[in-house]
Amino acid sequence: VDESQILAVPKPDEIAWDETVDVLVVGFGGAGACAAIEAAAAGASVLAVDRFTGGGATEVSGGVYYGGGTRFQREAGFADTPDEMFKYLKMEAGDIVAERTLRRFCDESSANLDWLAALGLSYSGSFSATKTSYPATGIFLYFSGNEYAPRYAALAVPAPRGHKVVGKGTTGSKYYAGLAKAALARGVRLWTHSPVTRLIVDSQGTVVGAEVRRLAAEPSDLKRHAQIYRRARRMVGILTAAGAAEAVQRVAEVEGGSATTVRVQARRGVVLSTGGFIFNRQMVNQYAPLYDDAQPLGTPGCDGSGIKLGQAAGGATRRMDSIMASRTIAPPTALVHGLVVNREGRRITAEDAYACTLGRLIAEAPGSVAWLILDRALYWDALRDSLPGNGRLFLIHCVPAFMSLLFGSKKARSGAELARRCGMPVDSFLATVAEYNRIGRGEIDDPMGKKKDYRRELKGSTLFALNISLRSKTAPLATLTLGGLDVNEDTGQVRRPDGTPIVGLYAVGRTAVGIPSNYYLSGLAIADGVFSGRRAGRHAAGSPR
Ligand SMILES: Cc1cc2nc3c(=O)[nH]c(=O)nc-3n(C[C@H](O)[C@H](O)[C@H](O)COP(=O)(O)OP(=O)(O)OC[C@H]3O[C@@H](n4cnc5c(N)ncnc54)[C@H](O)[C@@H]3O)c2cc1C
Q1: Does residue 213 have its Cβ closer than 6 Å to ligand 1?
Q2: What's residue 339's pLDDT?
Q3: 503-543 residue pLDDT tens
Q4: Cβ contact 396:133 at 8 Å
Q5: Strands 317-318 and 295-296, how do they pair?
Q6: C-alpha to C-alpha distance for 527 and 276, rounded to whole angstroms
Q7: Is 239 in the pocket of ligand 1 (CB under 6 A)?
Q8: Whether 336 contacts 440, CB under 8 Å
Q9: How far is CA 457 from CA 178, 380, 412, 419, 441, in A?
């Protein structure tokens, strides 16, 4: 905890405030924008300050919203209900939030999507059942988790709940642009290039405002700040852990320069919505060292600054070790027909498992090593299906598959030779392949529960192994952080270790513990940003002091 991040003022009324508002929103990504809109709608004057231009991880994301019982599902012929959504999510979220909070999240899910639509965002029931890491062009509703895997489908009726904003390519930028436009139209003011560096606290421990560093004073600093951010944002999905650390360091240098410090009084509350901490490699090393070499997904704003501010004000954290680790293998669909083994030559999962389930299993496998085994026909089918076309998105679907197939694979003329080349025990690997082939021929059922459409015998003696390990050079696991500040689940107020709320301080989105903090599913972070953002915005606006 860094005490210098707190400015204690015994008498806030005697301070020379530069600006006074009802609600100060610190970080203008998805969750912050939702908090700002909700607070403004409740009649509060709202200032949002963002370290860069706004948008954060939300803007570079897929923009998928996880929702159940929606009109778009009905359009596609699915009679999903909040109850089935709850039954499914309970299995994934566990006890990360109280049962009544998870229930409320599910009950409000469809209304929250309607709220987004009313703000001007566009959704659709155009659906495809094809397994995919992200919907191809023209598809806006898909299965974005483990819903149809047998162990879940036995307890909750599967339904596609991933709702992508209508638009071309990845639509996180459309999602953010829609929210930002709606917020500004409702009177929210936005200061860009304005990081918050200290919270201002009175003698009771109430958060009464914040210090903002405004970079606008020095054009050359501003230019450099914007440049570092733009570059890092362009490299989402490519930037390595070392690249992320370097970007954060360069940002800190600029921010330590010529900025003007401005004191903003927040009469009703300060909302911390600064995202997660995957770009802060020290924090990742401290809380989740297994993922030290994995690829960080996010922007230089994801350096945990809001979590640290909350801690300095006395806030507790939870599940800081919880990481989303994604290993997408489809499209191309041919790859889902293959066999996934660990370095002991043993199968670790049904290969059609959701990307982040597969990723976590790989991370937790011995040495975090895993191989995807293909026969010759599957290898060539996959290569053909990696070519642009059929609605495939070049950067998301084609490039990673190509990289793995062409530069991250080993080929051998026999199973034994492949096992040796991959450092796997030969007998164990051959036994695994033999059993997998019996499943593929339909002689035995699959104990892992892979969908029948994807079961397949590996034919011929030539086999390929794609390196899908955590530290694969061609495609390391992609990661996000899921833990954060502990909050009161009715109000969004940050809580101290003893559970009491810190008056005047809220945390939302990935700065807080929320629905996805135990287990991430595609769409759950955006949906949680709406849920937690609206909750905090509403409560803060209604809390005059
Ligand atoms: C490539 C990618 C794809 C993804 N796809 C999906 C998806 O399809 N669906 C889904 O649900 N989730 C997805 N996610 C995850 C999801 O986007 C994020 O977890 C979520 O959007 C985080 O929202 P947030 O508002 O909490 O934080 P952010 O959107 O990161 O916003 C935080 C903001 O705070 C600002 N900030 C940081 N520090 C300060 C400070 N000290 N002072 C002022 N401002 C500050 C940042 O500049 C930033 O603008 C994806 C993530 C990535 C990276």
Answers
A1: no
A2: 98
A3: 999 999 999 999 999 999 999 999 999 999 999 999 999 98
A4: yes
A5: unpaired
A6: 15
A7: no
A8: no
A9: 47, 16, 17, 18, 6
Pocket test for ligand 1, best of 2, 50, 519 (most atoms within 8 A of CB): 50
The DSSP string of 246-293 is: HHHHHHHHHHTSSPEEEEEEEEEEEEE-----TT-HHHHHHH-GGGTT
* 149 neighbors 202 (Cβ within 8 angstroms): no
Token pair for 409: 């694979």
Q: Which atom of ligand 1 is nearest to the CA of 511?
A: 26
Protein residue with its CA nearest to atom 27 in ligand 1: 275
Q: Whose CA is nearest to atom 51 of ligand 1?
A: 61
| Dihedral sign computed on CA atoms, order 338, 341, 347, 353 | negative
Least confident of 109-123, 322-336, 396-410, 460-474: 396-410
Helix (H) or strand (E) holding 374: strand 370-375
Distance (angstroms) between ligand 1 centre and the Cα of 324 equals 13
Under the banding of pLDDT at 50, 70 and 90, the label for residue 242 is: very high
d(CA 99, CA 101): 5
**Ligand 1 geometric centre to CA of 205 (Å):** 28
Q: Is the CB of 504 under 6 A from ligand 1?
A: no
Please, what is the Cα angle at 66 between 60 and 67, to 5 degrees?
140
Is residue 123 within 8 A of residue 163, CB to CB? The reply is yes
Question: pLDDT for 346-402, tens place per residue?
Answer: 999 999 999 999 999 999 999 999 999 999 999 999 999 888 877 777 777 778 888
Residue whose CA is at the smallest distance from ligand 1 atom 35: 27
- Ligand 1 centroid to residue 176 C-alpha, Å: 10
CA of 56 to the centre of ligand 1 (A): 5
Tell how many helices (H) and how many strands (E) occur in the chain: 17, 21
Selection from 297, 306, 289 nearest residue 328 by Cα: 297
